[in-house]
Specification:
The protein has 265 residues and is an alpha/beta fold. The protein is 37% helix and 18% strand. It has helices at 26-34, 54-57, 69-74, 89-95, 109-122, 126-147, 172-179, 221-228, 241-245, 250-264; strands at residues 2-5, 11-14, 21-23, 41-44, 59-60, 79-83, 101-104, 153-160, 165-166, 182-184, 209-213, 235-239.
Length: 265
């Protein structure tokens, strides 16, 4: 018997080994794979794009917020992996009738490392989890030295258009912006992903950089031009959204990506 507490503070008791996993979070699917759990993963979402071959070898159970409960139930999972931001409370409650649902809640790098450690215990992959924690910690310390002498610049991180929405406070994106010494001009706005008015962007902070994320919205040059009309001397940069918003093992690659980004801008 194993007792563990997830990141919502819910205690779970497991009587048997967890050998059939459904993952409803793309970045956590990638982490589970990197921990050596490919054979245990039986169900994923249509947004779980890493590793690429999972689309052909795993059962797709819908999106992160529109899932097929019958498909999941038919897979007979031992555990379902969710995330507070990615999956709704109603989804988690309904899934709980099928099997235990483990919910993560990631705001900080420390939260991310805790999740990796939790997965190591849940799936008897403690050694593999510790290796990833060590690698991420090493890269983290190295990046903090790299970024230490960089000046603080104001930034706005756009995630959606029509309406325009940005990353606010209490998001993993905001955590990584801060790490990169980018002051998020919208960190004081209500909501984690507030809707904003372009015509007010100068009044609300007039950022040095506007970052247009590659996901979840496919920004194009036309959006950069439109946003640019309302800024002063802002530089618009298209960025890899996975590097700013995916937690788990992806964070290791993110540190290297951030170094290249700073060299470019």
């Amino acid at each position: 018997m194993m007792q563990l507490t997830d990141q919502l503070g819910i205690q779970h008791t497991f009587d048997t080994q967890l050998v059939r996993i459904v993952s409803l979070v793309p970045s956590q699917t990638e982490l589970l794979y990197d921990l050596g759990l490919e054979d245990s993963i039986v169900g994923i979402t249509k947004f779980c794009v890493h590793p690429v071959h999972f689309k052909a070898t795993k059962t797709i159970v819908g999106g992160t917020k529109n899932i097929k409960f019958d498909k999941i139930k038919a897979l007979q999972p031992d555990i379902i992996i969710c995330n507070k931001e990615e999956n709704t409370k109603e989804i988690v409650e309904e899934l709980s009738a099928i099997c235990p649902v483990w919910v993560t809640d990631i705001f900080t790098i420390e939260d991310n490392l805790q999740m990796i450690s939790d997965f190591g215990q849940l799936f008897n992959k403690r050694t593999e989890a510790q290796k990833w924690i060590d690698k991420i910690n090493f890269a983290y310390q190295d990046f903090k030295q790299f970024i230490n002498d960089k000046p603080i610049k104001k930034a706005a991180y756009f995630i959606w258009a029509n309406p325009y929405m940005v990353a606010g406070n209490n998001t993993f994106i905001n955590e990584l912006l801060q790490l990169n010494r980018f002051e998020n001009i919208y960190k004081e706005k209500d909501g984690r992903y507030p809707e904003i008015e372009l015509k007010k962007i100068r009044l609300e902070g007039d950022p040095d950089y506007v970052f247009l994320s590659s996901e979840p919205f496919p920004f194009k040059d036309e959006h950069a031009f439109e946003i640019g009309r309302f800024t002063h001397h802002t530089k618009t940069v298209f960025v890899d959204g996975e590097m700013f918003s995916w937690y788990g093992s992806r964070l290791l690659k993110a540190f290297a990506y951030f170094k290249v980004l700073h060299d470019k801008i």
